[in-house]
Amino acid sequence: MTTSPPAPRRRSRHLVSAGGLLLLLASLPACAASAPFDRRHGGALDAELARLLPGPSAGTSAARLDPSAWREGRERLAGLRREVEGAGPRTLRVRLALREPRTGHVLEARGAIAVAPPAIEGRARAAESDLLEPEGALRMILLGPGGTTALDLWARGDRFRFAVPALDLLRRGDASTPRTALRGLPVDFLRWWMLHPAAGTLLWYSRAESTESFVLRDGDAVIDLRVNDRGVIGARRTTWSTAEGARRRRLDEEVVIAEGMGCGNVRYAQASTGLLITVICEAEERDRAPDPRAFVDPDALRPGGGS
To answer: What is the mean pLDDT of each successive set of 10 residues along the chain, which is 307 residues long?
Structure first.
């Protein structure tokens, strides 16, 4: 028979975990910038992606040349986009578990994600979203012990703000920020996944057994997106350098596997850092839109602040 540790020890353990999470988030970008890309870091989710959502065989490589298959792919992609955008503004209550890549320790945090998806073409925006960019916006806040803010991510259009208040860490960027400066920060991926996971130019499509496969180009990233008939969705997003005059090279690779497009469990892996995150969605609020202030630049809300 085992007994639970006394309350003071449990609290101490939680404090250590929260502190480790803050230190890790602060150090990942610097580590990722200097470390070479290692595909093996994402191996666990790569294998699971292949098992749950097998990609097309070599024999289907000519599918793009088939006009009927190409038309089907475009229609299915449009349907996925309508499903995501049609969810409307919402708030997700989440629990996050992060595996520290150096030691394998699992760190935990809780919080909320406010989402305002891009406006749907031909449909008027809700009054609460009048100030939003066409690309949409999101705000993610994770809390540590005692309700203190452990992490605050704001993104609107192509601008973002990533903060770890306890360490006085603040990083900002926009479309002009070099991709190399974002290694270790999953900002682009979160914007793509939360706001428009089916966005991008369709390059290729096929359907094999119960799984549909799409290849999309989204700026300097190429996405291998797969969806099966049970609604399970997975994606591998590979980001490439596009510096003028420089040899094209792979900057990072991120893999996500989710139970579906809505509120469900999601697993995420980042190859450049070895970061592995599990997000459990505990509740979703759609009846009431998030407070519009959540999508305003946090620095602009402070006295003397500016966007």
So the answer is: 41 41 50 46 72 69 64 89 78 86 77 83 43 74 82 90 82 83 74 81 88 90 92 89 70 87 86 84 91 90 56
Let me know if 9 is exposed, middle or buried by CB neighbors in 10 A (0-12, 13-18, 19+).
exposed
Q: How far is CA 45 from CA 102, 162, 237, 296, in A?
A: 18, 26, 13, 34
Residues facing 95 on adjacent strands: 110, 280
Q: Report the largest interatomic distance among the alpha carbons of the chain, rounded to a whole angstrom.
A: 67
Spatial distance between the Cα atoms of 189 and 187, rounded to a whole number of angstroms: 5
Which residue type occupies 223?
I
Alpha carbon distance 228, 205 (integer Å)? 13
Which of the 8 DSSP states describes residue 3? Answer: -
Q: Do the beta carbons of residue 196 and residue 225 sit within 8 Å?
A: no
Q: What is the DSSP string of 215-243?
A: EEEETTEEEEEEEETT--EEEEEEEE---
How far does CA 8 lie from the centroid of its chain?
35
Strand pairing of 169-173 and 159-164?
antiparallel
* pTM for the predicted model, two decimal places: 0.74
**Residue 251 Cα distances to 185, 254, 267, 275, 301, angstroms:** 12, 10, 21, 15, 34
